[in-house]
Automatic annotation (TrEMBL):
<feature type="transmembrane region" description="Helical">
    <location>
        <begin position="256"/>
        <end position="276"/>
    </location>
</feature>
<dbReference type="InterPro" id="IPR023214">
    <property type="entry name" value="HAD_sf"/>
</dbReference>
<dbReference type="Pfam" id="PF00690">
    <property type="entry name" value="Cation_ATPase_N"/>
</dbReference>
<dbReference type="InterPro" id="IPR044492">
    <property type="entry name" value="P_typ_ATPase_HD_dom"/>
</dbReference>
<keyword id="KW-0109">Calcium transport</keyword>
<keyword id="KW-0597">Phosphoprotein</keyword>
<dbReference type="InterPro" id="IPR023298">
    <property type="entry name" value="ATPase_P-typ_TM_dom_sf"/>
</dbReference>
<keyword id="KW-0106">Calcium</keyword>
<keyword id="KW-0406">Ion transport</keyword>
<protein>
    <recommendedName>
        <fullName>Calcium-transporting ATPase</fullName>
        <ecNumber>7.2.2.10</ecNumber>
    </recommendedName>
</protein>
<dbReference type="GO" id="GO:0005524">
    <property type="term" value="F:ATP binding"/>
</dbReference>
<dbReference type="InterPro" id="IPR008250">
    <property type="entry name" value="ATPase_P-typ_transduc_dom_A_sf"/>
</dbReference>
<keyword id="KW-0812">Transmembrane</keyword>
<keyword id="KW-0460">Magnesium</keyword>
<keyword id="KW-1133">Transmembrane helix</keyword>
<keyword id="KW-1278">Translocase</keyword>
<dbReference type="InterPro" id="IPR059000">
    <property type="entry name" value="ATPase_P-type_domA"/>
</dbReference>
Length: 1058
């Protein structure tokens, strides 16, 4: 039924043709039944999705081709030929398993909604004369639902209330709307068809909890048509956005695939003339297959197979460091995304605030002179349910027992109250039992301690209700006149435990309503008449509290000193309650709010310094939201919020273009629904903002899933946690700032090892390409390339992820998510390094053929035409053709490749700083990785049967000397290129330089040092702190850099020494 909240109860009943006392007939039930069910992807579809990535498809093709070619191998290569395709397939299988596992975990967000689906419901149906309990899934629209008080039970469907059978019906719908206090429901129509869920006071929503009361209503929506069902559909239809790193790697894959295709085809075409060489037995087909194998080897060399594993390892290490800071990461790629977060959209309740109502101000009347009154105003410290805090008058702590007015105020708070405090020993925190508003009053009484009780020897469990117990020992509660909408108050009838004293009523409620029924004002132990002038003064002060900076929720407290005898009071008729609450005496007023977390102000300030915009998105009213924004620094104290704060209704009324402009400016959205949150996130993403969305309720889940970073609170719902990428175990907004800092550090380190791996792969491509173009024997085979890419390169790359963050990393604005991993100048640098790696590898193999004492010492011409080697060919007289199949040259080439890349990993310690200023020992993990990689290389050379598998052979000491001579110059080359970056390019281009750390507070520097993690104490050394402020991201083009390369080698010695 559309807009059931706008219809009267009679119209809703008539629409379904039902009666409150009979319900649906069996025929009506059959007509109304509709079946709903999620349509999930099959396991096979999830597996296929993992192979849609271009890099994966290229690797799969290479594996298939290698497998087919291995079938035709002969001799000792028959076994080893299968190693390459098997290794590649194992990589792809592992990748697919991880991908499917992550996909299945993502669907847990939808399954977690079942936590809020009640199992049973109570309805009337005509086949029985009484209320019957049926399974919630069998409830259909039109069913007449009946409920009796049962605290915490869940509503089974969306229901339009038709009658309330108790004084009030209270519902906790915080999981759906984010409201921190329970809502009082009624049956009157809500005429606004566009009313948000918070304003639909005549509706109950599926999954919300009954707090108190009894009611009857008509089911209007079930399954996916309920409000919580709509959230489920929205989550199911939300596509997960790729992280900036994933997007960059996708782009890299596309570019790499094009380059691979061109180079492979070029190598194959260029060598068409060699297809019929004698080495192939004169068979053109065998020659074509041979060069096809070289093309496949080239593809294997070009693909950085180890990159996914290294990235995963680095991100996993980052998640461990974040977990120590109470940020639990559920999605590894989101670790890197945190580093470029530019907007944090935060829910208010429970995220920026404590979600624990707290009395922060109160007043009692001090003096009345000539219709003017002076007040005793007090402020209260403490922002949680913990009974810890001071009562201040001005800035001076006071003893509440010294004020008679406060003694009676505490009595009203304690007696007119059905809630209590409880200490949760497992969690180590105080929790509410009952209503949040009443628990705030209970906590206030504990802080006031008006009878000056000795609390020092009490346990925390005993401390939870100690002061309230003292008051309740003096008075006995007889009965309660429950809250009603007409009088907007509740009261309790109490008799003194000590005989002979007068019974009293204690009243609390909305100030306007309570003060209207007051005739007196309490002054000390006496009272004076409440004149219209006094009433106006009191209401003026209360309005000031309710509309000012704090926007407090105010409650007036009063007593009835001479109530009617309880025997003459009609307790069954709530319409007479107001008559019993006349002639009251005003005692005082308390102002409460859901206070901001004490750490939030500093966290918001740090976000501002880091260039991150914080936007509050809440279901609460606009006045309260703006007030909290002012308190925590999202808005300034006097800042005009026009155009910067909107309600959901105001936002909807704007045209689409105006909505886009509003999202650009706004920092506060109030009275919003889940659809608003997702729309706001969508607009931010259209501006290329990287958005982090925080929340803890079901209502936050769709936006959590849509945002690049969904951040759930540890105390939040399972739905929110499952839809998020990160969970804050301490529910602390400031933890987000620490996570962003860690994310920025991880990205900087990832740039270094990604560039290191890419330059290594460029070297491998150059090696294969040169051997193919020059007609030389194979320098490297695919299985050797796989070993290098996955193992020996992977370990130093992983170690590069241990570099700690710069001290001023949070003083820089967020990086542009479209910032390339490799700029024009850097691309030239890594082409130069990669070119040297490839040239050095080929040179090592060639040296063995031409100059090694144990080699054949053939001529370079003979080497280039080795495929024409036969016993009858006079050009190869005295040369045994089998020498061109020796394992020594490939072993030399592989050893140079591994060694040169170990030296190159040292180059990657810093993008532009010399090794003389940033020596290798600043990262002991990298030194350990280099030692381990070289040990593994020695393992495959000297331990049987590994040499057979990798087709290598042990080298002699003289050969190792040559390996080192060829490998070491890569450091000299990169030092020269770094020198150009530091001393020439910076004068041509403008770079955002790091802010000096001397301007940072000492305490902040120490905090960041302590939180750097992952690198050990070596990173805290003075040496590291001096060199850690490297120049930031460089840009440029190959053309600009090429003009400065002239004379590079002539100055290299000077560069290293200086």
């Amino acid at each position: 039924m559309e807009n059931a909240h706008t219809k009267s109860a009679t119209e809703v009943l008539d629409n379904f043709g039902v009666n409150e006392n009979t319900g649906l007939t069996q025929e009506q039930v059959k007509v109304s039944v509709e079946r709903y069910g999620p349509n999930g992807k099959s396991l096979w579809e999830l597996v296929v999705e993992q192979f849609e990535d271009l890099l994966v498809r290229i690797l799969l093709l290479a594996a298939c081709v290698s497998f087919v070619l291995a079938l035709f191998e002969e001799g000792e290569e028959t076994t080893t030929a299968f190693v390459e395709p098997i290794v590649i397939l194992l990589i792809l299988i592992a990748n697919a398993v991880i991908g499917v596992w992550q996909e299945r975990n993502a669907e847990n967000a939808i399954e977690a909604l079942k936590e809020y689906e009640p199992e049973m419901g109570k309805v009337y149906r005509m086949n029985r004369k009484a209320v019957q309990r049926i399974k919630a899934r069998d409830i259909v629209p039109g069913d007449t639902w009946r409920w009796q008080v049962s605290f915490g039970d869940k509503v089974p469907a969306d229901i339009r209330l038709t009658s309330i059978r108790s004084t009030t019906l209270r519902v906790d719908q915080s999981i759906l709307t984010g409201e921190s206090v329970s809502v009082i429901k009624h049956t009157d129509p809500v005429p606004d068809p566009r009313a948000v869920n918070q304003d639909k006071k005549n509706m109950l929503f599926s999954g919300t909890n009954i707090a108190s009361g009894r009611a009857i209503g008509v089911v209007i929506a079930t399954g996916v048509t309920t409000e919580i069902g709509k959230i489920r559909n929205q989550m199911a239809s939300t596509e997960q956005e790729k992280t900036p790193l994933q997007q960059k790697l996708d782009e890299f894959g596309q570019q790499l695939s094009k380059v691979i295709s061109l180079v492979c085809v070029a190598v194959w075409v260029i060598n068409i003339g060699h297809f019929g060489d004698p080495v192939h037995g004169g068979s053109w087909v065998r020659g074509a297959i041979y060069y096809f194998k070289i093309a496949v080897a080239l593809a294997v060399a070009a693909i950085p197979e180890g990159l996914p594993a290294v990235i995963t390892t680095c991100l996993a290490l980052g998640t461990r460091r974040m977990a120590k800071k109470n940020a639990i990461v559920r999605s590894l790629p989101s670790v890197e995304t945190l580093g470029c977060t530019s907007v944090i959209c935060s829910d208010k309740t429970g995220t920026l605030t404590t979600n624990q109502m707290s009395v922060c101000r109160m007043f009692v009347v001090d003096k009345v002179e000539d219709s003017n009154c002076s007040l005793h105003e007090f402020s209260i410290t403490g922002s949680t349910y913990a009974p810890e805090g001071q009562i201040l008058k001005g800035d001076i702590p006071v003893n509440c027992g010294d004020y008679d007015g406060l003694l009676e105020l505490a009595t009203v708070c304690a007696m007119c109250n059905d809630s209590s405090l409880d200490y949760n020993e497992a969690k180590g925190v105080y929790e509410k039992v009952g209503e949040a508003t009443e628990t705030a009053l209970t906590t206030l009484v504990e802080k006031m301690n008006v009878f000056k009780s000795d609390l020092s020897g009490l346990s925390k469990v005993e401390r939870a209700g100690a002061c309230n117990s003292v008051i309740k020992q003096l008075m006995r509660k007889e009965f309660t006149l429950e809250f009603s909408r007409d009088r907007k108050s509740m009261s309790v009838y109490c008799t003194p435990v000590k005989p002979g004293s007068q019974s009293k009523m204690f009243i609390k409620g909305a100030p306007e309503s309570v003060i209207e029924r007051c005739q007196y004002v309490r002054l000390g132990t006496g009272k004076v008449a409440l004149t219209p002038a006094l009433r106006d003064q009191l209401l003026s002060k209360i309005r000031e509290w309710g509309t000012g900076r704090d926007t407090l929720r105010c409650l007036a407290l009063a007593t009835h000193d001479t109530p009617p005898r309880k025997e003459v009071m009609d307790l069954e008729n709530s319409s007479k309650f107001a008559q019993y609450e006349l002639g009251l005496t005003f005692v005082g007023c308390v102002g409460m709010l859901d206070p901001p977390r004490k750490e939030v102000i500093g966290s918001v300030r740090l976000c501002n310094e880091a260039g991150i915009r914080v936007i509050m998105i809440t279901g609460d009213n606009k006045g309260t939201a703006v007030a909290i924004c002012r308190r925590i620094g999202i808005f300034g104290e006097e800042e005009d919020v026009v155009g910067k704060a909107y309600t959901g209704r105001e936002f909807d009324d704007l045209p689409a273009e105006a909505q886009r402009d509003a999202v650009k400016r706004a920092r506060c959205f109030a009275r919003v629904e889940p659809a608003h949150k997702s729309k706001i996130v969508g607009y931010l993403q259209s501006f290329d903002e990287i958005t982090a969305m925080t929340g803890d309720g079901v209502n936050d889940a769709p936006a959590l899933k849509k945002a690049e970073i969904g951040i759930a609170m540890g105390s939040g719902t399972a739905v929110a946690k499952s839809a998020s990428e990160m969970v804050l175990s301490d529910d602390n907004f400031s933890t987000i700032v620490a996570a962003v800092e860690e994310g920025r550090a991880i990205y900087n380190n990832m740039k270094q090892f990604i560039r290191y791996l890419i330059s290594s792969n460029v070297g491998e491509v150059v090696c294969i390409f040169l051997t193919a173009i020059l007609g030389l024997p194979e320098a490297l085979i695919p299985v050797q390339l796989l070993w290098v890419n996955l193992v020996t390169d992977g370990l130093p790359a992983t170690a590069l992820g241990f570099n700690p963050p710069d001290l001023d990393i949070m003083d820089k604005p967020p990086r542009n998510p479209k910032e390339p991993l490799i700029s024009g100048w850097l691309f030239f640098r890594y082409l130069a390094i990669g070119g040297y790696v490839g040239l050095g590898t080929v040179s090592a193999a060639t040296w063995w053929y031409l100059f090694d004492d144990e080699g054949p010492q053939v001529t370079f011409y003979q080497l280039r035409h080795f495929m024409q080697c036969t016993e009858d060919n006079p050009l190869f007289k005295g040369v045994e053709c089998e020498v061109f199949e020796s394992r020594y040259p490939t072993t030399m080439a592989l050893s140079v490749l591994v060694t040169i890349e170990m030296f190159n990993s040292l180059n990657s310690l810093s993008e532009n700083q010399s090794l003389l200023r940033m020596p290798p020992w600043v990262n002991i993990w990298l030194l350990g990785a280099i030692i381990l990689s070289m040990s593994l290389h020695f393992l495959i050379l000297y331990i049987e049967p590994l040499p057979l598998i990798f087709q290598v052979t042990p080298l002699h000491w003289s050969q190792w000397i040559v390996v080192l001579k060829i490998s070491f110059p890569v450091i000299l080359l990169d030092e020269a290129l770094k020198y150009i970056s530091r001393n020439h390019l910076e004068g041509t281009f403008t770079f955002p330089m790091n802010k000096p750390t001397e301007n940072l507070p000492k305490r902040e520097i120490e905090r960041r040092r302590a939180g750097s993690g992952g690198g050990g104490c070596v990173f805290c050394s003075p040496l590291y702190r001096r060199v850690s402020q490297s120049v930031s991201h460089l840009t440029g083009t190959a053309r600009a850099s090429a003009r400065r390369v002239h004379g590079l080698y002539q100055h290299s010695a000077h560069l290293i020494s200086g």
